[in-house]
Fold this protein.
Amino acid sequence: MELFSYWMKKLFIPNIPRPVLLLLDGHSSHYEPGTIRFAEEEGKIILRLPPHNTHVLHPLDLTFFDYLKYLVTKHATNICRINQDVLLQNINHPPLIAWYKAIKPETIVSGFRKAGICPFNAQASLSQKMYLYLQLLKKFLHL
C-alpha cells in the first residue's frame, strides 16, 4: 500500500468526521484512483489545487514553508559564520528547531486566510497573483 493510500485509509478517514474537504497539491502520489474512490465513498471531498499555482494558492507555501526556509537559511548561515570550513550547500538537513518554530497553528491558519480559502475570499488569491505578475513585469521592464 502506497504511503498516501495508507494515510488516507488508516489514519485520516477513521479520525475525521464527515463531511470534509481535503485540499491537495498536484503530487502524483495523491491521485491513486482507488484511494480517491474510497475517500468519496466515506464522504470526503478531495479538491486538487491547480498545477503551478501552489506559490499563490497553497496555504503552507504562503506562510509555513517561507518561514521555515527563512529559519533554516538563518541557521545554516550562522553555522558557516562559526565554522568557515563548512560550505552552505553541504548543510542539507533542516534543523528540527526551525520546524518546531515554524509549525504553529497560527502560521497554518494564516496560510488559509492568505490563500482566501478560509474564510473564503476570492480577492485574496487574485490580488496575490496580480502582485506577483506586477513584480515580474517590473523586473522584466527594469523599472
Q: What stands out?
A: The chain has eight helices and two strands. Residues 5 and 35 are 6 Å apart (CA to CA).
